[in-house]
Amino acid sequence: MRVRGRISAAVLSGATFASCGGSGTAMTELPFQTAPDKALETAIQKASSSYTRATVEAGGESGRARYVYSRVDLNGDGKDEVLVYLLGSVFCGSGGCNLQLFTPAQGGYDLVDEFPISRTPVIVSPQVTEGWHDLFKLESGGGAPASYVRYAFDGRHYVERGRTDAATAPTGTRALAGEVTFNAGIPLEPGEGRAADSGPAAPAPSATGFSTVCGVTVGGQDHRYRCTVEGAQAGGPGSTVLSFPDNTVTINWLGGGKATATFTGMVPMSVTISTADGVTRFPFEDKVYFYASDRATAAAQLDSLH
User: Fold this and answer.
1) Average model confidence (pLDDT) for the chain?
2) pLDDT tens digits, residue range 23-54?
3) Which domain range does residue 244 map to?
4) Residue 247's closest CA among 293, 285, 289?
């Protein structure tokens, strides 16, 4: 179902206009905000399972993160959603930083979506799908040409619906506009950490898949979660789909320890993968992702989480 939506009045009243893109078309700008919001910070901590005190201690000052945000009503209910851009070594790589989208909830915010390795600004399109405004993000990396990626709401989440050349920016409201730098961001306190079986749950495995333990190594510290594995065994042939609680990685095996890894909302990236003692690992950006790829190893690691 497609219904009409609107950009919040707060966007229009606080907006400026600037020429952007190769066409010189005037676009509404919604500058990023830097006023601390404790309820928002609590939601960010809850959604950012890798950002814990242990991570910060392992990375020192470089492990600390900051954030900026923009508010915009994406679903026409008169309440502003919040686009949060996270800054710091835990959240950023050469292709950009994590972007989170929250919607107001009782006493705080609920996470709608997370977009890894994003760049600013984010363009809020006048086009509406399933009651929510489409979003455009500029993406590049992995040897692929830069492009604007259109995301449309499918009733639960935003999903990719096409790419256009980066030479011409789509029309709409530029949220998180301005020169976003780490020093301009709001300091974000790390969370206390949580058990691997708490927080968002990975989808249940199919009859051919299995539950396992997966995670990411940041600053020498492992962060482990429950996840599921579907598809080919480690090494292939074929593809393996690894479902983290808040992301999905598709590994396309090429042989000889080579593969491509595609994170949700990103272009495929070439990676080198190794498997030892039933655990498969691959570096990506400045992190190392891993999962227990052997059923027996997975069962043992799952038992250790209790």
Assistant:
1) 81
2) 444 568 999 999 999 999 999 988 887 787 77
3) 210-304
4) 289
